[in-house]
TrEMBL record:
Domain of life: Archaea
Domain SpoVR protein-like N-terminal: residue ranges: 13-361, 493-560
Pfam family for this entry, one: SpoVR
Protein's name according to its UniProt entry: AbrB family transcriptional regulator
InterPro entries: Spore_V_R (IPR007390), SpoVR-like_C (IPR057008), SpoVR_N (IPR056174)
Domain SpoVR-like C-terminal intervals: 562-613
Amino acid sequence: MIDDRIEAQRIAADLEQPVAKANELAEKLGLTPYPVNYWIVDYDEMNELIAYGGFQQRYPHWRWGMQYDRQRKQSQFLGGKAFEIVNNDNPAHAFLQESNTLADQKAVITHVEAHSDFFANNEWFGLFTGREEAPGERSEVPMEAGPDAAGMLARHAETIQEYMQDPEIDRSEVEKWIDHVLCLEDNIDQHQPYSPVDIDDEVEDLDTADVADQLGDLDLSEEVQRQVFDEEWLDSQAEDGESVSFPDSPEKDVLGFLRKYGKQYDIDAEKAVEMADWQREVLEILRREAYYFAPQKMTKVMNEGWASYWESVMMVGEAFAADDEFVTYADHMSKVLGSGGLNPYSLGLALWQYVENSENRREVVERLLRVEGITWRNFHETIDFETVRATLEPPDWLVDVPGHLDDLEPEDSRVDADALAAARAGEFDVETYPWQLLSYEGLVERHYSLTKPQNRGFLARISLNELERISRYLFDDSRYESVEDALADVEYARGWDRMREIRQSHNDVTFLDSFLTQEFVDENDYFAYEHSQKSGDYRVSSTDYEDVKKKLMLQFTNFGKPTVVVEDGNFDNAGELLLAHRYNGVMLDVGQAREVLKRAFELWGRPVNLHTIVKEYDEQDLEVARRRDREPEPTEVGKRLRYDGAQVTIEDIPWTEVEHLAATDVDYDTKPEDWLA
């Protein structure tokens, strides 16, 4: 055991050069990451960092201990291993486990460099840091401003710790308050930039129930009330038709709304009272952290796929994994990509590779369709695809740079002239780092996706419909006399350039919506499945890409959580809160919804209502469906859940009150009648 620890520490001490070279290679490949600070930690420290979300200091709360215990048990009993964790910061901080082999450490470092590039350039991460660009601008240089996340979270931790240690504040009350807020932490508007709720911008209380109570406490006769208060104003408090309603439109940032208008319920006074200053500050702290972590939840597939793609390019394509490290790396990478369930590494990597191949194919096809005598109709009969592939193959000197050192020409745009001079002077090991001799142009041609064996048939698989679409929008009327002339003008960088554009502007939902096609579904054997009401099990429902896409998108819309908005902060003109569930074919878990309403009550101080839609099945219809081997048709019914501080009640409400909540054109629930035989 001691020898293993000494060996692990030796490997860690030798990482300085791989870190520097990985960053240099990443930048040569066109990535622009934040600078990364690497830290070596032991097993327990890694588990603690994972529990803390990648940071060394967080506010006191039982959730961290629970997450630490879960991570430790997963590693101990389920065979999982944490290789690294990296946070979104400038500079970013990456933590490497000292027990990793050198092959694992190199894989982690290349993976981290790509993550850091994603953090620095994706616009959804920029929403939190305030990075802005003029409409239409696309800069490949990351903004100087970073989130300063480590400092922010440390300040938050200190603030909450001080409240817990304040002799005038009960520590358990702070802990309970945190629990209430965390129950709603994903109910923010993650599509908008973070901005703090200004406490000086508070509106006057609109709780008409309080007004009535106060008038009653004064024991004034109705005649005196009419003399003192404006008659029209008094009538407006009692007439539903004149009730004051806000917000003007549904508010998705539930935490922000509660921060601005919420109260706490005073048990002794039996009414809502203003939140204490510490309660409002803790609520805003947790809201701010929710906005910080939101982009990571919104881009899990993109981000992990992006990091896995460039890790593979560096570790395999550029032999960053040495010969004696490759088998270990390949074994561990296959386990990561082959793990079960909805695997963001596997799905993300496959989608990025598909985007690259598709864009490169389009570039080649656009050139070939300009060759005299070639049209979209005769494309497949005219083109010799093996000849095209052979023509696009990189030259021998690009494949084996060290073996052709004397043949390289510094004037060639694919060669880094300064590095070539240094190599010929013996200043670095060309065998270990051949990529140093190449420019970006050389690297994109060296790694051109359509020439790789696994993509051999991709160009030939283009459909007639796609050929027609490309032909329709070919406005450049220049023509080539031969296929060879056309291929000589191919832009090898088009796939990587397009990938960086997508990395900059998309999140998981838009990524899946834009690039998951029938071709991708067929190539990767994806399918949708449904729960059968008649049999009680699950079965394949469709292999149509639209159905698969809807099912996948449902997993990522609003972090895969139900979308709930504030519809009215003065419901029934009684100061009650009305939340609404935007129903997309998937019902709320009513049991969980009950508990969430109880938490929301603590942040509102008055009764809380929730409108939703549920599916109900008639028992007789279920029995008939089972006998006839078909799925029963559910009835969708509007429901109102209400918690008044004592009990939760559920009642049916007219469909007209929830009809606007039902999904129409964006319905993620595939229908049983669309099932395939």
